[in-house]
Amino acid sequence: MKKYTYNQLSVLQYILLIHGAQVGIGVLTIPRELAEKASTDGWISLLIGWLAATLVSLVITNMMKQYPEKTIIDIFPLILGKWLGRIAIVFMFIYCGVAAFVLLINATGIINVWLLSQTPAYVVVFLFTLPTYFVLQGGVRAIGRYAELVFYLTLWIPFVLTTAYREVHWLNLLPLIKDGWHPIWEASKSTVLSFLGFEFGYFAYPFLQKKQYAPLGIVIANTLTLFVYLSVVVVCFAYFSPDEITQYTWPTLNLWKAIEFRFLERVDILFLSTYMFILSTTALPYIYFCVFSSSQLFGMKDHRKHLRLFLLLVPVALLFYTPSFIDLKKSIQIWSFAGLGFAYALPLLAWGPIRLSKRAERGEKA
Amino acid sequence: MRAFAQILLLSLLVTMLTGCRDQINLEDTTLSLMVGIDLNEKNELLFYISSPVFNREAKEKSEEYGIRSSTIRESRMGFDERVTGLTQAGKIQVLVMGKKLLAHPDWFRLLDVVFRDAKFSVNARMAVLDGPLHELFDFKPKDKPRLAIHVTTLIDTANNRNLTVKTRAQELHRQMYEKGMTPTMTELKKEKRAVKVTGTALLKQNGTYASLIEPRDTILLQTLLHEKQGELSVTIPIKEPNDQKQISKDRISFFIKGVKKKVKTTYQNGRFHFDVHFNLRVSISERMFPFDMEKDHKKMERMISDELQKDYMKLIKKCQEIGADPFGFGLYARAYEYKEYKKVENDWTKAFSNAKVEIKSDVSIKGNGVVK
Fold it and tell me: Where in the sequence is the domain holding A48, given as residue range(s)?
């Protein structure tokens, strides 16, 4: 009956798994995206995005509470019937697969621009796949532990970043609400997508040891993410001029470029290498739940066969086709759009019917 | 068998890491430490590099080349044809512009590669040379370290004493795009036997050269920009009734131990008003005339603050006349009078030259040195 007890997550791992999945490529680009729309008021939009994400997260945990021992993959056939359920699983599998692929090619693209301009993309992505396999073969618990480890490993980042504080201009943040609330609302649309990752509430719930902490945990994860984004955005706004920041594709990386120590000249390279760990905590859960969905679809217990296939397919795909920077941008848009459906719309639409059917069930029993 | 396969896989991974195609050996590189761009009489672009030579057989410790080219990236080709290794831009310490080049409004576009190519160092100090660049790059002083290192240290130490600004390439990028302030950079001059820091070059909104301010005025500019940063030592003339004939002039020197700056921004009758209020804590380090400090220290404080106030006003007036705002008053205007600033932001220097700036300084003498 209890299918997932052998592979349990502690509350901290659950929090950091979701938090890790949220903090990804967005950190590098979000200061520019917000500044383009709302200038230096963009940080207010983040609060709106956080509020929306947290509310939907609570809906997700509430929905999953109705089936405490099941992931979304097991629930789909229950409520939609066998065939419709299967189609839904296929969609879920495609969504996770697309997200994982988008993350991998974007990480490769950034590496190709910043560090290894001569190394072909498929070599870089092949270097990613081997460690990925070692972590993912261990299942959800290994991912949880990995997310926890990476979290500790990246705690130095805010301290080094304080060296940039000498050259910040806090005046840039004033005045508050420059041109009214309209641009802030506009910008909050793009922040809604930066919080993507909480949809792992669909998957992680049955693995959680102490299920009563699920809603609290997901709120903490979202808030932790909010703090990361806020600190990055505020420092970038204060460091770059509001007229200038839109010139940079990845302002957060440029911030690191300017930091220089007597004994270390290019901190950005060090940061970018560490950043690959952070990025991996985003990509890993998507890859895992992609192969998890597909192997469940075929009724297989072991996900490793599909995992090997997936990790082989990505470098092979890149061997034949290297995405251009426009493709990368479009791919993120596609993922964002899909995320809007799967992470925001799906729980809001499904919550009502699930609650009603559960209540009816209980009524029958009584 | 399984362990063997894993070890094989891991060693494959390790060999691939070193084999990335971006690998380059240090002995095959030529690290350009100083790069210069200039215009000749025929308005052709000239590019210069100076890079260290790490070779026991070579007598000279650094190599310098100048070539004609049209962009920085294109010039790299020309350098690679001449220098021993492959030219690398990741370690550039100084970027020197010819003064003649800075007369052209689109010179900043030449630096595109600095910001576009992630491998370029954006931490290079920006400087302008008064005179033709080949004089600087041909300079081989016997009593100094390698030229590029010498110039780098010269700018850094002069900046520590606040005799000039230290504008790194990334900071220049900010100043160029920031509508509320105008860029500044270090100005150098090649003298007969030395390279000299002559002060700070003020640029206009579009980046063209506007004027030079002396090291003395740079100290004032720096306190307006950063309050206290590094060492601030000021010498000013004090008028004290004195009928004796003497060789020393009536000067007083002091360290500035701390600066507190408050700016009040208002908009009245169609012009911006900036009330700058300084609180300076100073310590006297040199006094060239007799004075009873114990009795009259209040009077001395007033005299110093009057003199400083006058100097500040003179500097600001000068900047307003030439159409430059190196102080970033526009940032205050944007922060506190956003509506009015928005109307003039595209021509901020004009609004600034029309603005009313008032400087008030309160000096308090905290130290009088070791002797009375």
Answer: 11-340
Question: Cβ(A304)–Cβ(A295) under 8 Å?
Answer: no
Contact B336 A174 (CB under 8 A): yes
Instruction: Give the mean pLDDT of A62-75.
Output: 82
Any domain includes A359: no
Token pair for residue A145?
Answer: 């532990």
Contact B334 A174 (CB under 8 A): yes
Residues 6+ apart with CB under 8 A from B74: none
The whole-model pTM stands at: 0.86
From A130's Cα to the closest Cα of chain B, the distance in A is 8
Nearest to A178 among B168, B177, B338 (CB): B338
CB contact under 8 A, A119 and B22: yes
Q: What is the pLDDT of residues A26-67, one digit of tens each?
A: 888 889 989 988 888 888 999 999 999 999 999 888 888 888
Q: What share of chain A is helix, strand, coil (3-state, %, to 5)?
A: 80, 0, 20
Residue A139 counted as domain residue: yes
pLDDT band per the 50, 70, 90 thresholds, residue A3: low
Confidence of residue A149 (pLDDT cuts 50, 70, 90): very high
Mean pLDDT, rounded, for A328-357: 83
What chain B holds in terms of domains, given with CATH numbers, is 27-213 (no CATH), 215-371 (3.30.300.210)
The partner residue sitting opposite A243, judged by closest CB among B21, B122, B178, is B178
Identity of the residue in A118, A119, A258 whose CB atom sits nearest the CB atom of B168: A258
Q: Answer yes or no: are the C-beta atoms of B38 and B97 closer than 8 Å.
A: yes
The CATH code of the domain that includes A313 is 1.20.1740.10
Is A51 part of a structural domain of the chain?
yes
Neighboring chain A residues of B17 at a CB cutoff of 8 Å: 127
Q: Using CA coordinates, name the residue in chain B closest to A171.
A: B335
Angle, to 10 degrees, between the axis of helix A267-297 and the axis of helix A72-80? 40
Q: Would A87 be classed as within a structural domain?
A: yes
Taking the Cβ of residue A178 and every Cβ of chain B, the question of whether any pair is shorter than 8 Å is answered with: yes
**Pair of tokens at residue B8:** 């094989």
Per DSSP, A163 falls in state G
Q: So what's the pLDDT on residue A1?
A: 41
Question: Hey, which residues 98-127 in chain A have their CB within 8 Å of chain B?
Answer: 113-120, 123, 126-127
Per-residue pLDDT at B247 exceeds 70: no
pLDDT tens digit sequence for B268-322: 888 899 999 989 898 888 888 788 888 888 888 888 888 889 899 999 999 999 9
- A176 interface with B at CB cutoff 8 Å: no
- pLDDT tens-digit map of B61-117: 788 888 888 888 888 888 888 887 788 888 888 999 999 899 888 899 989 988 888
Which chain A residue's Cα is nearest to B329?
A171
Cβ pair B179:A247 closer than 8 A:
no
Q: Could you tell me the CA-to-CA distances from A283 to A15, A102, A133, A290 in Å, in that order?
A: 16, 9, 12, 11
Helix A139-153 vs helix A267-297: angle between axes, to the nearest 10 degrees?
A: 170
- Please tell me the total count of domains within chain A: 1
Burial A112-130 (b: 16+ CB within 10 A, else e): bbbbbeebbbbbbbbbbbe
